[in-house]
Amino acid sequence: MAEFTLPKNSVLIEGKTFKAPAGATNTRRFEVYRWDPESGENPRIDAFELDMDSCGPMVLDAILKIKNEIDSSLTFRRSCREGVCGSCAMTINGKNSLACTKAIDSYSGTIKIYPLPHLQVVKDLVPDLTHFYAQYASIKPWIETQTPAPADSERLQSKEDREKLDGLYDCVLCACCSTSCPSYWWNSERYLGPAVLLQAYRWLVDSRDENTGERLDDLEDPFKLYRCHTIMNCTDTCPKGLNPAKAIAETKKLLVQRKLG
Question: Which DSSP string corresponds to 194-259?
């Protein structure tokens, strides 16, 4: 019978515990994944007991408090704090989300914070998104045209055509959906994943783009598009409330319609 073992440095160990300040009565416990590739040590889980009377309301506020007041070596990404940049994507209590948009009070008990799953970790809560962004670039996320631009105006579109982009342009490329997708875990080298496919559909339905045929040709591939098995994790976890699964289904529909003429 086959035996499988995990690499030695993949086994989590118990880390440090940082108690709340003396006299704190309103406390919450946060368990945070820590890993420094330069240390040569296994990943660990550090526990932080925070005084919530001196902490902001969002999970990102707690992470910032840990870094600013307890352990400055904690490494993570963040920028806008408004759910717009997608930088602070991480796994919070088992579900991918944006730390800046998740209220601490929306969770009960200990809050467990890990980096996005199934990606190489750069350090602590920072995953390596190099491949993800390369896949995004591969779909040519910009308007491609064949005809000259109007001499005295922009390329215009009707109100109805503009509404077709709602729920598509809103994507902030946080990678929460792609890293929650089992098909992407198994085939990420060839399957584009829900986030990139949603972005691809955004350009397919843009009335100003004139390269629809070429875009469809590029997606008509057994792995790039058709590894989606409609598991729906992507739609369930999207912190912006978007529906990547629908965008993927609509792309498949466009390909079928083209074949049928």
Answer: HHHHHHHHHHHS-TT---HHHHHHHH-STTTTTT-----HHHHH-TT---HHHHHHHHHHHHHHHH
